[in-house]
């Protein structure tokens, strides 16, 4: 975009994309707050029910890479609208599933659209706003990801508690359809771009700075979802926490994430690495405390930990994506596609590792291992110099 200022229409479009991100990630993560109910309904253990998160995430990996190569030339508005309608169909079918395999099949449909949507969405903000506003636009768009990661799950849990897990999937289907309508009416006409080739992927994967960011992303996202996938069973196991307060606790987690996203948006263009390192240190400390002090923390201590965790992870998710876009330049699409693939693969891996640890040990151990992995991710980021385009004095 050549203009150095944006209009209100541009920011409405950016906000619509943020709502779209909220919807797709809520679709992916909604089962996290419903695992106990889903497992009970179909007669499967919680660890097996968690696989509906894993399968979805891993299929989204393949869809993201496929779309970057094959679908990138398509005009953005009709493509994104079509993908949101497929997501609506997926959640609607999931709400009516009578068997666990049928539920898994419905999730596969959604995962295909999810990966394609997310691979495309990473570069659209940069097409709408000038370079010096890309950080803010990315914060708004991927604020939807953060909001869904921290707010979509508690909302799904609340709906599931009040009216069953099928009602939660029905609500997600309705939201997906609504977002499709909003995107159709608000998104500007944006052309596709040249498809991503092997050479572009190779340039990104041969860049040691990208490799460092990707490695940190894999460690942090795996550790986060290793713990967060099983947050509802973890809270339910605490003697001071009754089932009726789980949804409010998760909402506190989500509210902190939304607040942190606002703060992050105002800081990230100049202080990106500093924001990331502080947020990662906070997240690792919280995971360690949840693993070692669950017996003595009580309701209020657990509430505080969830607020700190929600705020920290929201800043981390926006920070990683913004750093990728600032580094990528003309390779924004392949870099974003690889990032999305790694992100979703890490979600699935985290859920699987959590299930393995849960079957062999317990919930506290899941959080302890997640804390260690987050520390390793923090160390990886600390070793990389500040992002391109960020003043050295700010980092």
UniProtKB/TrEMBL annotation:
Coiled coil: none annotated. It is found in: Cell membrane. GO terms for molecular function: transmembrane transporter activity. Residues 13-389 form the Major facilitator superfamily (MFS) profile domain. The keyword Transmembrane helix applies. The keyword Lipid metabolism does not apply. It comes from the Bacteria. GO terms for cellular component: plasma membrane. Keywords: Cell membrane, Membrane, Transmembrane, Transmembrane helix. The chain crosses the membrane at residues 12-35, 55-72, 79-97, 109-129, 136-159, 165-187, 208-231, 243-263, 270-291, 303-325, 337-360, 366-390. This is MFS transporter. The lineage of its organism: Bacteria, Pseudomonadati, Pseudomonadota, Gammaproteobacteria, Oceanospirillales.
């Amino acid at each position: 975009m050549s203009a150095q200022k944006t209009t209100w229409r541009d920011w409405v479009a950016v906000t619509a994309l943020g709502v779209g991100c909220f919807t797709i990630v809520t679709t992916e993560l909604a089962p996290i707050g419903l695992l106990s109910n889903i497992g009970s309904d179909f007669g499967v253990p919680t660890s097996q029910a968690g696989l509906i998160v894993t399968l979805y995430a891993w299929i989204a990996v393949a869809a993201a890479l496929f779309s970057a190569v094959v679908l990138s030339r398509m005009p953005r508005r009709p493509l994104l609208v079509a993908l949101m309608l497929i997501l609506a169909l997926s959640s609607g079918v999931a709400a009516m599933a009578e068997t666990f395999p049928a539920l898994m099949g419905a999730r596969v449909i959604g995962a295909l659209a999810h990966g394609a949507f997310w691979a495309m969405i990473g570069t659209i903000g940069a097409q709408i706003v000038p370079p010096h506003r890309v950080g803010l636009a990315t914060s708004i768009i991927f604020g939807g990801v953060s909001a869904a990661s921290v707010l979509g799950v508690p909302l799904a849990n609340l709906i599931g508690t009040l009216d069953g897990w099928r009602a939660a999937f029905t609500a997600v289907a309705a939201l997906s359809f609504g977002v499709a309508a909003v995107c159709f009416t608000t998104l500007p006409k944006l052309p596709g771009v040249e498809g991503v080739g092997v050479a572009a992927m190779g340039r990104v994967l041969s860049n040691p700075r990208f490799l460092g960011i990707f490695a940190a992303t894999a460690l942090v996202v795996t550790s986060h979802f290793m713990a967060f996938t099983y947050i509802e069973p973890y809270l339910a196991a605490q003697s001071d926490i009754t089932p009726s307060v789980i949804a409010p606790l998760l909402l506190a987690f989500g509210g902190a994430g939304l607040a942190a996203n606002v703060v992050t948006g105002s800081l990230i263009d100049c202080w990106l690495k500093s924001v990331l390192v502080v947020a990662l240190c906070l997240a690792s400390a919280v995971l360690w405390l949840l693993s070692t002090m669950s017996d003595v923390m009580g309701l209020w201590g657990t509430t505080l930990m969830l607020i700190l965790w929600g705020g920290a992870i929201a800043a981390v998710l926006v920070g990683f994506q913004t750093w990728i876009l600032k580094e990528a330049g003309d390779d924004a699409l392949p870099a974003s596609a690889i990032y999305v693939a790694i992100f979703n693969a890490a979600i699935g891996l985290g859920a699987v590792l959590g299930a393995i640890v849960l079957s062999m040990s317990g919930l506290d151990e899941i959080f302890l291992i997640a804390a260690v992995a987050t520390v390793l991710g923090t160390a990886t980021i600390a070793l990389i110099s500040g992002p391109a385009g960020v003043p050295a004095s700010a980092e």
